[in-house]
Amino acid sequence: MTVILWEKYMTVKGQRPDMKSANIITLIRIAIVPVFMVIYLIEIPYHEIIAFTLFLLASLTDKLDGYIARKYNQISDFGKFIDPLADKILITAALVMLSEAGIIPSWVVVLIITREFVVTGLRTVAMSAGRVIAASSWGKAKMVVQVITVSFLLTPLRSMTLGPIAIGGVLIGIMTLVTIWSGADYLILNRDLFRKENSED
Predict the structure, then answer these.
(1) Nearest alpha carbon to residue 28 among 10, 46, 48, 2
(2) Distance between CA 155 and CA 178 in Å, rounded?
(3) Is the confidence at residue 12, as pLDDT, over 60?
(4) Which of 25, 42, 164, 167 could, after both became Cys, cross-link 65 (CB 3.0–4.6 A)?
(5) What's the CA gap between 83 and 25, in Å, rounded?
(6) pLDDT band at 19 (very low <50, low <70, confident <90, very high)
(7) Where do the CATH 1.20.120.1760 domains begin and end in the chain?
(8) Torsions phi, psi of 166, nearest 5?
(9) What pLDDT score was predicted for residue 199?
(10) Mean predicted lDDT score pLDDT of the chain
(11) Is the CB of residue 187 less than 8 Å from the CB of residue 133?
């Protein structure tokens, strides 16, 4: 839907997105983060719903900037750097806030952030070896599960249960397992990098 609206807007303007538009959208996603955090933390009417809307909007821009970058050949080194960074900033900010509010256990947030550091370090090692580690299917699944879980927990629906089972707790568990496994998957698929490092030592 976001992509369709963007293309209709550019058609009305009689323009194609310029070479910087994909990166601009990514930067807008980062700019939304502090606004989202402030609105969630302050006590104003419907602040949770507004924060949820901003989080969902920011999450949708991830699909939009990727689509524009591919369709209009705007893929750049800066885009490859800033796009995953924007995702991490958005998810980390949301998780930290939810932990501060007592909705997500702090150890879960620590595990997820640790996973991000490990994968980022792995990508750094790969770059030094002249290799680019693309997002895996598990990495993409991790992002989808995180967005769904955080979106649910940002709303009053988080208190919903199915009998004795708390839906929010189940989603947190799934998110944690998928996040950890996606990190392990990266390490397993690229374990030869460490063998090369050891052989050079």
Answers:
(1) 2
(2) 22
(3) no
(4) 25
(5) 10
(6) very low
(7) 1-101
(8) -85, 120
(9) 54
(10) 83
(11) no
CATH 1.20.120.1760 fits 1-101, yes or no: yes
In this prediction the pTM is: 0.79
- Determine the Cα angle at 91 with ends 94 and 167, to 5°: 70
Q: Which two three-digit tokens encode residue 32?
A: 């939304």
Alpha carbons 180 and 175: distance in angstroms, whole number: 9
Quote the tokens at residue 182: 């996606």
- What is the token pair recorded at 61? 């821009």
State the Cα–Cα distance between residues 151 and 59, nearest whole angstrom: 10
In which element (H, E) is residue 138 found?
helix 137-153
φ and ψ at residue 165, rounded to 5 degrees: -95, 125
